[in-house]
Amino acid sequence: MKAAKFAKFVLFINSLVPLAMLGYDASQHRLGTNPVEYLIRTTGMLALIFLILSLAITPARKVSGWNGFSHFRKMLGLCAFFYGLLHFTSYFVFDRSLSLKRTLSDTLARPFILLGMTALLVMVPLAITSTNGMIKRLGAVRWKRLHRLAYVAGIAGSLHYFLLVKADTRQPLAFAAVLSVLLGYRLVNRYSPSLRSKPAIVRPSN
Amino acid sequence: MSIKKFSDIPASEITDEHVYFNRRAFMRAGILAGTAVATGWAYEKLNGRPRSLASSQQPPALKNFTPVPVSSSTHPIATGDPNITRAFTTTEAQTPFENVTHYNNFYEFSTGKESVADAAKNFVARPWTVAIEGLVRNPGVFDLDELLKISPPEERVYRMRCVEGWSMVIPWAGMPLSKLLDRVEPLSGAKYVAFQTLLDPKRMPNQRRRVLPWPYVEALRMDEAMHPLTILASGLYGRQLPNQNGAPLRLVVPWKYGFKGIKSIVKIQLLAEQPQTTWSAYGPNEYGFYANVNPKVDHPRWSQATELRTGDLEKRDTLMFNGYADQVASLYAGMDLKANY
Question: Residue B225 needs a FRET pair 20 to 30 A away by CA distance; which of A87, B203, B273, B332 works?
Answer without folding.
Answer: B203
